User: What shape does this take?
Amino acid sequence: METIVRTKVKDLLACEPGKDVLAKGWVRTKRGNKNVAFIALNDGSTINNIQIVVDKTAFAEDLLAKITTGACICVTGALVESVGSGQAVEIQAKEIEVYGECDPMRFPLQKKDTSFEYLRTVAHMRMRTNTFGAVMRIRNQMAFAIHEYFHSKGFVYLHTPIITESDCEGAGQMFQVTTLDLEQPLPRNKKGAVDYGKDFFGKQTSLTVSGQLEGELGATALGEIYTFGPTFRAENSNTPRHLAEFWMIEPEMAFYDIKDNMDLAEDFIKYLVQYALDNCYDDIKFLNDRYDSELLERLQGVTGTEFVRLEYTEGIRILEQAVKDGVQFEYPVYWGVDLQSEHERYLVEKHFRRPVILTGYPKEIKAFYMKQNEDGKTVRAMDVLFPKIGEIIGGSEREASLEKLEKRIDELKMSRNNLEWYIDTRRFGSCPHSGFGLGFERLLLFVTGMSNIRDVIPFPRTPKNAEF
Ligand code: 4AD
Ligand code: MG
Assistant: This one.
């Protein structure tokens, strides 16, 4: 007899009926009557299940009893046209093997408690649910789309380090990396400070908050690069938009000014959202119908509209006017303030009803490396603000002048010592260049319509939480 190879459920559902097939997966549901059982089988390849029709008289009772929700089975049978509505084809079972039973009494997913919070505690089941299966498939497609986008534009994928000695954002939110024994008295120098010369790298190191600084070295040699990797921030903010470990995409381009940078950011995001609509439609439609009936509309809206481009100063004027008109914000609004997500969302959702790229921020609230404007007060920063999310991208044109960069580093009382390797890019063949960082999970919040960032990453890390 010819051996049959396994076909994934996604492909089975697109097959013409009329041949024997082999399917493997986990039982979503089993229902039926005295004579027939209907099993909904899913293997993670699609949100859709394949229906297995079982003639109960042809199988042993104890085998059928083992086929419960959550069990893993292997089925051989004839792929036939389905008489029921909802699917084109189904499998008429000929042989069934139970790979792994799933005790219905101890099954962790009872119908009553499937809140996202609870699911985070049952890691082995979480991704087997419809919702997280959909989110993880979309996450995968988006990662692929990101590489495809930059690859097609000739950008070089540059691997920047995870362990670093420099704090790119200068915000002091780094996780220290050390092999010093914290249970023992630490080695000290003459001044009484910890002697990192005795540490693994011979200096104080941390997990990176951004690959940008190393990325700038890549861009000023290779032209256009991007990084895509995990980044770490020990910011103690327990919000639905912050993770302690998140993934960031950071393109960095020689010879781009701030306008080129904005154009790229807008084109990039539109490409990704369109890619999701084209390649993840079933999963997005599921999330739309289940949780967020405006999701599809919001995604289509973004691909079709031009983003607003607005100066920070003008943004503040609009917000101040809103306050005068009776809008209440939790945090105050005035020129110089770092905008809160409530302010960003007001501009995007209420005032413009479109994504907004805000530029020309006060230099005091932005990082040292941003190009300074002639007014002496603002820098060529750009934040892309999105509905429901607020800031999804942060970027800037970079300060190309050695003199201005060094002056700014000194003003901010940062140590030049461990930045000399970076400052060298301005000493030797400096060039205008720009870049930005897209928070991968913020993008996924937008594309999936999920409301908590913990629910778009397989294993979320947040303050007081690093399980699994
Ligand atoms: O605005 P940020 O801090 O910019 C940078 O790190 C620059 N070095 C990027 C660059 O120019 N190459 O972070 C960039 C983006 C934010 O807009 C946000 O989407 C995301 O990273 N982000 C976070 N996402 C999840 N959890 C956090 N704690 C995040 N912090 C920033
Ligand atoms: Mg930012």
